From TrEMBL:
Pfam families: Cys_rich_FGFR (PF00839). Its main location: Golgi. This is Golgi apparatus protein 1. GO terms for molecular function: fibroblast growth factor binding. It is a single-pass type I membrane protein. PROSITE patterns: GLG1_C_RICH (PS51289). The keyword Membrane applies. The keyword Transmembrane helix applies. It comes from Ficedula albicollis. Keywords: Glycoprotein, Membrane, Repeat, Sialic acid, Signal, Transmembrane, Transmembrane helix. It is found in: Golgi outpost; Membrane. InterPro entries: Cys-rich_GLG1_repeat, Cys-rich_GLG1_repeat_euk, GLG1. GO terms for cellular component: Golgi membrane. The lineage of its organism: Eukaryota, Metazoa, Chordata, Craniata, Vertebrata. Cys-rich GLG repeats lie at residues 30-92, 166-226, 294-353, 355-417, 489-548.
Length: 567
C-alpha cells in the first residue's frame, strides 16, 4: 500500500507515511484491511505509548507547567497528548506547537483516540445506531462518519418538538468540543474533509488551510450549482453546529472574543447554554452597535457573514423548522436556496397566499431581528439580487451597505425605476420591519432617546409586555403632532424620521399595522376594486365621512401629518 499510494520521500518517516495513508479515500484505492488494522493499532499505541508521552513532556515542558490540567494527567494512558491537543490554542512554544499539530492530525482521524469522547458518547453511539455505519469496525475512515452521525443526531434533536432520541448532555458537550477543536483546520473534520475534497479543489483551491478559512470559503459557495450534494450536506451540518455554539466557528470566536467579553455577551463555563447560541451572540453584539458602542471591524465583518448565512438558509434556524414546517411544505417547498424559502414565507405572512400560524410568524420576526437586514440590505441575498439594478440607478448616490438604501428603494416603490421582483422582495421585508420599530436602523438611532422618554422602551434586545415592539411606533407617532401647549413632543430629528416612515407606509396599507387592523372592513367595503396598489390611503381619505370611527381617526391623523410634511 505504501509503495502504491505514498511518495518515495515520505517512506523514511513513519508519521509522514501515516498521514499519507489516512488521507486516502478513493474506492478503487482502498487500503487492505490488514493494513488498516495495523494502522489502527499503531495509532492507538502511538497515543498511549510512554515514549511519545516522554517526547511530549520534553518538547512541551514549559507548556505543561503552565497548563495545570495536563500536568496532572496520569502517565501511559494517552491522556497527556489528548490534553495538549485540547489546549493547543494556548501553546506558544514553537516546537511543542509543531509536535502537537502533527499529533492532532493522527488523533482526529479516529474518535476513539480523542480523550474521553468514547466514554461520554458510547451509549449515544448505540442509541443513534452510529456504530454500524461500516461493517469494518477497525476501518480508520468510518470513524469520521461516526462523529458525523452523532452531529446529525444532535442538530436533528433541536428541530423536533418532541425528539424521539435525545443525545445525553455529556455527549453533546463532547460533540461540540470536537467540532470546536476542528474549527481551525478542515482536515480535522474527517467526514467533511472527505465529502468536500473535490469541491475544495473546485472552489477554494487557492485558500490556505488554517484559521477556518477553508470552511468559510466552502460556506460561501454552498449554493453553487456545481457544489456536490454530499459536501453541501456536510457544510449545513457544520453550520447548524455553529448556530448551537458559536465557538465551532474559529474565525467568529477569535474575532469577537474581546467584544463578547466587553459587552458581557458570553458566560464562561456554561456549555450549550443559550449564551453559546449564535443568535444570542448576534443579538447581544447588535444591541451594542445600535447603542452606538464600538465593536471591532473584524468582529462586525464576521457578524455580517453569519447574519447573511442565517438569512440565506432557513434550515439553520431550528425555530423556523419547528414552527413553520407545515407552511413550508404547503406553500414553499423546493425553494431552498439563497433565501427564497424565507421570502416565500414572508409573502405568505403578508397574506398574499394562504395563512401562517402565529408561532411561525413570531419565529420569522425573531429571525429578522437576529439577522437585522434593515441595517444592511446585503444580508438579504434574495432582496440584494432582485434590487441590484434599481440600487445601481436610483440609489447610486448612497454608499453600499448603508441602511438608507432600503429607504431609497421605498421612495422609488411605484416609479418607473422599480422592477417587479425587487418590489415584491422589498415589501416582504418591510412588512416585518414595520412591525418592530427597532428594525429600522435609522429610526432607532434618531428616536431611541424619545422612545425611552415618552414610550418607556427598554434596550434593543429586550422586550416589554407593556410596550410591544409594534406599539412603540404608534406611541412616537401620537407624540409627533402634539402642539406646544399639549406638552411633551418629539425631538426634531426623530419627528423627521417618523414622517419619512409615514410617507413610505402610505404607499402600502400592509406596512401600517394599525391602519390595516382598524380599517380592514372599510378597505374591503370602499377600496377593494377600483384601487391600485399604493392608492388605498387616498381612497380612504376620499371616503373619510363614511368610515367607522376608529379608522376615521387614524386616517384623519395621517392626513394631518401628511399636510405638515408637504408644507
Amino acid at each position: 500500500d505504501v509503495v502504491r499510494l505514498c511518495s518515495k520521500h515520505s517512506w523514511a518517516n513513519n508519521l509522514a507515511v501515516l498521514e499519507c495513508l489516512q488521507d486516502v479515500r478513493e474506492p478503487d484505492n482502498e487500503i487492505s484491511s490488514d493494513c488498516n488494522h495495523l494502522l489502527w493499532n499503531y495509532k492507538l499505541n502511538l497515543t498511549t505509548d510512554p515514549k511519545f508521552e516522554s517526547v511530549a513532556r520534553e518538547v512541551c515542558k514549559s507548556t505543561i507547567a503552565e497548563i495545570k490540567e495536563c500536568a496532572d494527567e496520569p502517565v501511559g494512558k494517552g491522556f497527556l497528548v489528548s490534553c495538549l491537543v485540547d489546549h493547543r490554542g494556548n501553546i506558544t512554544e514553537y516546537q511543542c506547537h509543531q509536535y502537537i499539530t502533527k499529533m492532532t492530525a493522527i488523533i482526529f482521524s479516529d474518535y476513539r483516540l480523542i480523550c474521553g469522547f468514547m466514554d461520554d458518547c458510547k451509549a449515544d453511539i448505540n442509541l443513534l445506531k452510529c456504530g454500524s455505519i461500516r461493517p469494518g469496525e477497525k476501518d480508520a475512515h468510518s470513524q469520521g462518519e461516526v462523529v458525523a452521525c452523532l452531529e446529525k443526531g444532535l442538530v436533528k434533536e433541536a428541530e423536533e418538538t418532541d425528539p424521539r432520541i435525545q443525545v445525553s448532555d455529556e455527549c453533546k458537550k463532547a460533540i461540540l468540543r470536537v467540532a470546536e477543536l476542528s474549527s481551525d483546520d478542515f482536515h480535522l473534520d474527517r467526514h467533511l474533509y472527505f465529502a468536500c475534497r473535490d469541491d475544495r479543489e473546485r472552489f477554494c483551491e487557492n485558500t490556505q488551510a488554517g484559521e477556518g478559512r477553508v470552511y468559510k470559503c466552502l460556506f460561501n459557495h454552498k449554493f453553487e450549482e456545481s457544489m456536490s450534494e454530499k459536501c453541501r450536506d456536510a457544510l449545513t451540518t457544520r453550520q447548524k453546529l455553529i448556530a448551537q455554539d458559536y465557538k465551532v466557528s474559529y474565525s467568529l470566536a477569535k474575532s469577537c472574543k474581546s467584544d463578547l467579553k466587553k459587552y458581557r455577551c458570553n458566560v464562561e463555563n456554561l456549555p450549550r447554554s443559550r449564551e453559546a447560541r449564535l443568535s444570542y451572540l448576534l443579538m447581544c453584539l447588535e444591541s451594542a452597535v445600535h447603542r452606538g458602542r464600538q465593536v471591532s471591524s473584524e468582529c462586525q465583518g464576521e457578524m455580517l457573514d453569519y447574519r447573511r448565512m442565517l438569512m440565506e438558509d432557513f434550515s439553520l434556524s431550528p425555530e423556523i423548522i419547528l414552527s413553520c414546517r407545515g407552511e413550508i411544505e404547503h406553500h414553499c417547498s423546493g425553494l431552498h436556496r439563497k433565501g427564497r424559502t424565507l421570502h416565500c414565507l414572508m409573502k405568505v405572512v403578508r397574506g398574499e397566499k394562504g395563512n401562517v400560524g402565529p408561532n411561525c410568524q413570531q419565529a420569522l420576526q425573531t429571525l429578522i431581528q437576529e439577522t437585522d437586514p434593515g441595517a444592511d440590505y446585503r444580508i438579504d441575498r434574495a432582496l440584494n439580487e432582485a434590487c441590484e439594478s434599481v440600487i445601481q440607478t436610483a440609489c447610486k448616490h448612497i454608499r453600499s451597505g448603508d441602511p438608507m438604501i432600503l429607504s431609497c428603494l421605498m421612495e422609488h416603490l411605484y416609479t418607473e425605476k422599480m422592477v417587479e421582483d425587487c418590489e415584491h422582495r422589498l415589501l416582504e421585508l418591510q412588512y416585518f420591519i414595520s412591525r418592530d420599530w427597532k428594525l429600522d436602523t435609522v429610526l432607532y438611532r434618531k428616536c431611541q432617546g424619545d422612545a425611552s422618554r415618552l414610550c418607556h422602551t427598554h434596550g434593543w434586545n429586550e422586550t416589554s409586555e407593556l410596550m410591544p415592539p409594534g406599539a412603540v411606533f404608534s406611541c412616537l407617532y401620537r407624540h409627533a403632532y402634539r402642539t406646544e401647549e399639549q406638552g411633551r413632543r418629539l425631538s426634531r430629528e426623530c419627528r423627521a424620521e417618523v414622517q419619512r416612515i409615514l410617507h413610505q407606509r402610505a404607499m402600502d396599507v400592509k406596512l401600517d399595522p394599525v391602519l390595516q387592523d382598524k380599517c380592514m372592513i372599510d378597505l374591503g367595503k370602499w377600496c377593494s376594486e377600483k384601487t391600485e396598489t399604493g392608492q388605498e390611503l387616498e381612497c380612504l381619505q376620499d371616503h373619510l365621512d363614511d368610515l367607522v370611527s376608529d379608522c376615521r381617526d387614524i386616517v384623519g391623523n395621517l392626513t394631518e401629518l401628511e399636510s405638515e410634511v408637504s408644507v
